[in-house]
Amino acid sequence: MEISIALSNSYGVLVNSFYELEPLFVDYLTRESKPKAFSVGPLYLTRPQKIEPVLHYKCRWIQWLDKKLAKRNPVFYVAFGSQAEISSAQLTEIVCGLEELKVIFLWVVRKSGTELGEEFEDMIKEIVDSSTQLPFFLDKIKEKCRRIRTSRTG
Fold first, then answer.
1. What is the rounded CA–CA span in Å between residue 114 and residue 100?
2. Which of 12, 40, 56, 113 could disulfide-link 36, Cβ–Cβ 3.0 to 4.6 Å?
């Protein structure tokens, strides 16, 4: 809801794309979008971000990613951001699909904003207990670690 209100009060939206890449989309946005959409991409950082020094203490999820990296196992990153409202049923379907595909994944769950429900949490416990390719769920609120720039995720 907040994003809809903010958009309706905006003069325009910057889109990190360019006409040659998505001409139909850019034409549609230019013609139909309110507020107006402006293609400004691709955007690049003028200066590379500083890499923070490696901490002596590593969070559980960083240790988990390090193990996957050492074994050259790709990890699928799942996060819906702070604006998304995802129901427990939708979360369950996504987990079932990832589990069926045997995908190793790191999922950032915003527990404070989403009611996961007992059924969802029970299903996760069952997957974790039975899986050889353990998924990793990270509750952003509980696990507070410094963000570091890393090659662990693609």
1. 24
2. 12
